[in-house]
Amino acid sequence: MTLPWTRPLRAIRPGDFQEWFFMKAVGLTEFGGPDVLRVLELPVPEAGPGEIRIRVHAAAVNPVDTMVRRGIAFVSDAEPAYIPGMDAAGVVEQVGEGVDSDLSVGDHVMAVAVISGTHGAYAEHLVVPAESVVPVPAGTTDIEAATLPMSGLTARMALDLLDLTVGATVAVTGSTGAVGGYAVQLAKVDGFRAIADAASRCPVNAAS
Question: Residue 116 contacts by C-beta under 8 Å, 6 or more apart in sequence?
């Protein structure tokens, strides 16, 4: 999407206001299975001081998103609608006042979002604290980048907490999952020996 103020001059059309001030998001107004997810229309959020707004190109699906959908996480203090999504990749489209960062409009980035009410990554636009946004690694697609923030950070922090020395052996259960997969790769980078296991197939209720 080209930002409205960078487009060639032309007559304003009625649909422009809808696009400039409203966005589509995938969310829910009642709890339940995957069938409760709907395409919703919400106001486009503005980046406040210390915040960055991202035009979202891809968002990951994490287990916690299914918990939001079922009403058992990140919904206690908020009224519906609820927008899931903790990981996003896209481009910077607005930088708030006072942001101390090298990022600028148009940069390819990925981010972690803390879900709260309509604040989630399953939306066309996402506002997050500037410190939650980092450049996408070179050669990485939006879809690939969207899987990195939450799962990659979880694996990184887990290995750091172990405080192991080079050559140590790490056992990684559920290694075919996002966190487990990153844990195996990061363990190798850290100089550890990784022993991985995984179930032959996912449990039936994993995405229920």
Answer: 74, 77, 78
Tokens 């995957």 belong to residue: 34
CA-to-CA separations, 134 to 65, 90, 91, 107, 169, in angstroms, rounded: 22, 11, 11, 10, 31
99-107 long-range CB contacts below 8 Å, 24 or more apart?
99/49, 99/50, 99/51, 99/52, 99/130, 100/130, 101/52, 101/130, 101/133, 103/52, 103/130, 103/133, 103/135, 105/3, 107/135
Nearest 5°: CA angle at 174, between 173 and 180?
A: 90
Residues 6+ apart with CB under 8 A from 182: 148, 151, 152, 154, 155, 156
Residue type (1 letter), 179: V
Round to whole Å and give the CA distance between 101 and 46.
18
pLDDT tens readout for residues 151-175:
999 999 999 999 999 999 999 998 8
Residues in the chain, pLDDT under 50: 1-7, 9-10, 12, 16-18, 204-208
Q: Is 205 left (phi over 0), alpha (psi -120 to 50) or beta?
A: alpha
The encoded tokens of residue 1 equal 């999407």
> What residue type is 28 in one-letter code?
L
Neighbours of 208 (CB within 10 A): 10
> Within 13 A of 162's CA, how many CA atoms are on the CB side?
18
